[in-house]
Write a structure and sequence with these properties.
3 strands; GIY-YIG endonuclease; single chain; alpha+beta; globular
């Protein structure tokens, strides 16, 4: 049985004050849900985390889950360092992944 891959991603609010870390097997669909507040009572909807600022692909979903837990366990500075490493301008990266 082939294991599916996974993605770790970070969304932020428009003013960059709030970060959300997530994991998914379908990044395009999941980020679309965040942007459109598909789950209106969720953390990301309540805090307006609608901007994709970081993502990373893993061959196995279990690896993505482990990385999500590691990132969530870190402080804000470590999260910002990850974002700045690939996206120093904190641009919305949704256009890069929306057709994946």
């Amino acid at each position: 049985m082939k294991q599916m891959g996974g993605w770790v991603y970070m969304m932020c609010s428009l003013n960059h004050s709030t970060l959300y870390v997530g994991v998914t097997s379908n990044i395009a669909s999941r980020v679309f849900e965040h942007k459109n507040k598909f789950y209106p009572t969720s953390f990301s909807a309540r805090y307006n985390c609608v901007k994709l600022v970081y993502y990373r692909k893993f061959e196995l979903i279990v690896e993505a889950i482990a990385e999500e837990k590691r990132i969530k366990g870190g402080n804000r500075k470590k999260k910002e360092d990850l974002i700045n490493g690939i996206n120093p301008e904190w641009k919305d990266l949704y256009d890069e992944i929306k057709y994946l």
